[in-house]
Amino acid sequence: MPPYISSLSHISNIPASVIGIDLTGSEKKASGWAVLQDGQVQTRRIKSNAELMACTVAAQPAVIALDSPLSLPKGRISVYDDDPGRYIYGISRLCERQMLKRGIRSYPTLIRSMQQLTLRGMLLAQEFRALGFDVIECFPGGTQDILGLPRKQKGLSDLVQGLVRLGIEGDYIYASHDEVDAITAALAGCFYLSGHYEALGDEDEGLLILPVALHQ
Asked: Cα separation of 72 and 125, whole Å?
């Protein structure tokens, strides 16, 4: 794990609003939603695509950071196992393989449990982009690894306290795990806006944004 970063005020205190969404694979299960602006964050849990769209559009964000695969492996035409290219092109993308080489573990894009999430993420991203919004794919677990934060599986309260120490202000001490991941997604969006990021993957297949940590 990298050394702990004392503050991210130079990254997160930007005047533009940034939306982070920790998306679920179904509208029956709430997604985490966060808006981060000037170092202040507000979170919600939202179920429907319509409400996700409405709340996000109302915030007029400079960027929307979605925690969901937003593209298929190159050569795939469907998220489902009956895709004729499944056994030729596989279920993962270059960005996931690159993360794994760095010790950042994530699920393959089209493992069966991820298929509906991938489809939902791709459709939402398409709708946001059609409205003129900048949408990026992020991975909160990877962002947390890079910033020296514990992932939620190792202790949600420790992750929350880590975000507090990084200077993220707001009423999220008792937030749900999906809201906390949405905050981390928004933080990745701040790194993107500030130019302190790297894009893993392939332009044609799809890029995933990770922060470049600036240790103080």
From this structure: 13
Provide the residue range defining the domain that includes 156.
Answer: 9-208
Tokens of 78: 């469907």
- 199 three-state secondary structure: strand
Residues lower than pLDDT 50 in the chain: 1-4, 216
| CB contact set of 83 (below 8 Å; sequence gap of 6+) | 76, 77
| Cα–Cα distance measured from residue 41 to residue 187, given in angstroms and rounded to the nearest whole number | 10
- For residue 64, the number of C-alpha atoms closer than 13 Å in the C-beta half-sphere is 27
Q: What is the pTM of this model?
A: 0.94
CA angle 141, 209, 27 (to 5 degrees): 65
- 46: domain CATH number? 3.30.420.10
Q: Residues 213, 36, 60, CA angle at the centre, nearest 5°?
A: 120
- Judge whether 2 lies within some domain: no
